[in-house]
Structures are given as structure tokens and as C-alpha cells.
Amino acid sequence: MHSNHLLLEEPIRMASILEPSKASFFPAMTKIVGTLGPRSRSVELISGCLKAGMSVARFDFSWGDSEYHQETLENLKAAVKITKKLCAVMLDTVGPELQVLNKTEKSISLKEDAVVVLTPNQELEATSELLPINFTGLSQAVKKGDTIFVGQYLFTGSESTSVWMEVSEVKGDDVVCTVKNSATLSGSLFTLHGSQIHINLPTLTDKDKEVISSWGVQNKIDFLSLSYTRHAEDVRQAREFLSKLGDLSQTQIFAKIETVEGLTHFDEILHEADGIILSRGNLGIDLPPEKVFLFQKAALYKCNMAGKPAVVTRVVDSMTNNLRPTRAEATDVANAVLDGSDAILLGAETLRGQYPVETISTVGRICAESEKVFNQDLYFKKTVKFVGEPMTHLESIASSAVRAAIKVKASVIICFTSSGRAARLIAKYRPTMPVISVVIPRLKTNQLRWSFSGAFEARQSLIVRGLFPMLADPRHPAESTSATNESVLKVALDHGKAYGVIKPHDRVVVCQKVGDASVVKIIELED
């Protein structure tokens, strides 16, 4: 099934480029995180997004209240039932985000070389000469010559809806700036970003804590995207906060790296976090343009070697208003996959974009084509070398399962797991075939009632490249007799056959625990 995987070092036949892309149940191994908002919140549209390949829904609390997001989430639940596609939920915190407030919502035109004052006085009306902001300490944080960007939603610093300003002087609490490009700001709220400027605000704000402890707890969120993570301590404090909120002690924390400060402490943050989001919008402004690709490659490599999911943002901005990405964007998506990204995060493209379903579908097709030329052989050797010897027991089993699957050209790897750790370790070695993670629920009690674990673990694998979860019958424990394992295996094989990833005479590699021993076995299917 996967014998046609090319290596980038091999010459690629032009004929293969001209062949049409083949549709499959798993559009790509690389996952897609979609931000749900005004243009993508109906049951019909969310169903379209799920069918197109979205596996994680992101709820951005930078705008909209809890009631608004709850309505969207209820529609997501309905769409999941209709499509029978599992989807995880990610809550994105606001963090120390600076905002310009435009209460009248009138468009504001700013002309090149004009002077504009940023003031913490939120009672004043926003005009082309005066912009009220939600932070009193900006005048202490900046100095003459510093760069400030203002734009609606997300900004690149070059589009006509974003403005680049230079600080010319500080007057008391006000900051006087010179406009560097003409732009029109429209809407009620704009983001303000100071390039390489330390903002003395907590990473997890009181507003964030309120949203997490109400909306987050109510909906048992799978992922917390921690905006503006600057230090490992930010992640530790967020985890301590979640640990006191019942089920949210299982919620995974993804550190969002969006400033040079976060980049400076990247290694420590990676050690503490469950995953990393490379927020290239803000970082693209903080870093010189020629350094952006280096940051991406270095950060993705570190995440891959640590076996932690890495998510890349800001890939097809132009699809917010267009049906096709630019050539540079299409190449950028492919390079993110080849660099080792687990998932692609779509923000404005699905939040307010005109073509959310088409965007997800297009990105999925680019990812699938890129995966065909991913140099798995080189990647595998590099990972084994990085891990070193002696390997841990689990790491050894995981790498052996992947090596065996590639050698026998297996169509799929099936992994029995209860915590999800074994399946994630297999995915770390980037097999060229899908990994079906059979999550075996475990019975647990809080001394008042019984419940099953497993749903969290299954949904949390929806952000890991190549991992496709399936919840097993809770009557079959993960470490069990060969008889019960065979019955769960049959269900997993039937699941794979139903979706067309397993065919007669295919070979399948199975990774499971039998008693105290971990076993990797190869089975060949009959008709």
C-alpha cells in the first residue's frame, strides 16, 4: 500500500506529479486544527470541516463570550454525531494580549508618516490621531525607536489592514508613534504587538482563569493553548491551576511560542509542556525575516526528538478571501510537513474566512502529497541516534514496531494502549502508514461513583501526526489474555477495513501487552 513512498533525494518522476491526488478516508497523516467562529459555526459547516479533515476544533477567547462559544460547541457535538468523526476541543487563552479598543466600530484610516498617540485612557474615542489601549504600562515598556504593530485579528505587517508604527517619544502614560504604512483599521478590537518588548502581565490572566474554570470545566477541554508562553514557570503555573479543576488535570497544555522571550527559553518550556504551537504571526514580526525558517526547523526538530506534538500556524492567510492559496503558501505547508510538523493550525482562514471547508481540504491534500516524499528512513535513523542506548523498554518496542512495519510493508500499525503513551511513541518514529490507536478504557472511582477513562486519551491523539484513535469496549483490559485481545484486534481490523486502510492479504503490525510482556507481532490477512 505504501511502497510508492519516495525519498526527497530520489529523482521524482514528472509523470507522478501529473497524476491526480487519490482520495482516502485519512486525507493526511498531518492533523488540521480549525478555529471555529462567525464563518464556521453552523452544524452544516462544521460537518463539512470534519469531513474535510479537521480533527481539533479551536475556540479562541480573544473575542466572543462563553455563551457564544458554547453555542458553537453544541453545534460541533451535533456535527460529530452526524459525521461519526471524532474531534478534540482546544481552548485558546487570551494571555497578556494588548488590544486597541474602538467602541464606535467606525473605520480608522492611518496615513504614512502621520503621528498617532496610544493612550491607556479607555474612555476616549478611537480616531486616526488617538488609539485607546487596554494596558497602562506600555509607556514604561517601550523606548524611542521601538516597533509596534496594530491590526485586526491576525496581522502580517504588510497588508492594508495592519499598521506598522515606530515609537517617537513617550509622554507620561501616552506613547507617541509615527505611522510607517498607510492602512485602514475596521472593527471593534485590534491586536497590538510590540516587537521584542517585555509586557509585565501574567501569562494566565484572571479572565483566562475564569473562562477555564467555568467553560473549560463544563466542557472537559482536551487541550489548553497557553498564549504568550515566555517561561517554563508559565506552564507549571497553568498545570497547577488545572490540577485543582477535577477532570482538567488530564487536559494537555500546548505552549504557544510567539515572542523572542519564549524562544529564548524554548528548551525549558518544551520540557514542561505537552506540546508546542509555533505562532508564526507574532514571531514573524519579532524575528528578522531571514531567521523565521531557521526557528521553524530548529523548533520542530526539538519537538520531534522529544516526542511532543508541534503545531504550525499562519500558513494560508490568502485563503481567508481566496479559493486557492498562493504558490508560496502551498510550498510553505509542504515544508512544514517535511520539517516535521504534527499539525497545521488554521486561524483567520476558518474563523472569518469565506472558504473554511475548502481551506481545510486544500491544506489536507498538500499535507498528503508532502508525506509521500518525507524521508522516513533518514528521520528514523536520526531519531534512534538521538534517543541513544540503552533505550527504555517502551521506546525499544515502539521503534521495533515501526521498523518491522516498514520492512514488511504493512498497511497499518495497531497499538493497544490505555494511557496513549505507547501509541504516541510509535508515532514519534513517523511510520509511513497510519497507526490505529486502540484505547482501552480503565475503570476509576472518586469514591462516590465509577467512571471510565479513555475518552480524553483518544481525543488527545487527534493532534499527533499519523495517529488515529479508536475507543475499545471497556470490558477488555489493555493487559489481558490472548483470547480477549484477539476479539479487540478483530474489532480494530474491521474498523480499518471499513475505512479502506486494510485490504485482503495486507500485513498488519500489532503492538500490545500480554501479561507483563510487550509484544510486537506481524499478521497477514486472509480474504
From TrEMBL:
So what does this thing catalyse?
A: pyruvate + ATP = phosphoenolpyruvate + ADP + H(+)
| Gene3D superfamilies noted in UniProt | Phosphoenolpyruvate-binding domains, PK beta-barrel domain-like, Pyruvate kinase, C-terminal domain
Pinpoint the Pyruvate kinase barrel domain residues: 30-360
* Names of required cofactors: K(+)
One GO MF term on file is: potassium ion binding
Q: Name one Pfam family in it.
A: PK
Write out the pathway annotation from the protein's UniProt entry: Carbohydrate degradation; glycolysis; pyruvate from D-glyceraldehyde 3-phosphate: step 5/5
Residues in domain Pyruvate kinase C-terminal? 395-515
Which keywords has UniProt assigned to this entry? ATP-binding, Glycolysis, Kinase, Magnesium, Metal-binding, Nucleotide-binding, Pyruvate, Transferase
State the EC number(s).
Answer: 2.7.1.40
Q: Identify the domain of life.
A: Eukaryota
Family the entry assigns: Belongs to the pyruvate kinase family.
Query: Any idea what this protein is called?
Result: Pyruvate kinase
